[in-house]
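This part of the workshop introduces the protein records we will be handling. A record pairs a protein's sequence with a compact description of its fold. Comparing a sequence with its tokens is the quickest way to learn the format. To make this concrete, we reproduce a full record directly below:
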Amino acid sequence: MLSKDAWESLEFSFTEEELWIAVIGCDGNKALWPNGLNLNFVKANWDLIKGDFMNFIRGFHNDGEVVKDINNTFVALISKCSALESLSDFRPIIFVTTMYKILAKVLTNRLKNVMDVIISECIREK
């Protein structure tokens, strides 16, 4: 069972430092926005746009919801060979929005601290 401290570590408000750690932990050339901007843009312009990201992540923390458009995922099929005959001849590439990717990274970083307790409890229950 999670301790009180572990529960609280999952529930406290997100910090700017926590968000920045998530941003720099992502590959800058991936997670293209529909307008072509990627995480390198976010990293280079962090001082200008961090307020928008903090508002987004605080909104998620307070409401527990993500704006529908933030969760859009785009799938592209890239050919693996020249003779395309079936779906298996393609490799899917999945693009998620940058804000969604950063949110997922922040949540993942928090869960890393308690995952061993959660998993060991599940194993013991079996």
Residues 57 and 63 are 10 Å apart (CA to CA). The chain is about 55% helix and 10% strand.
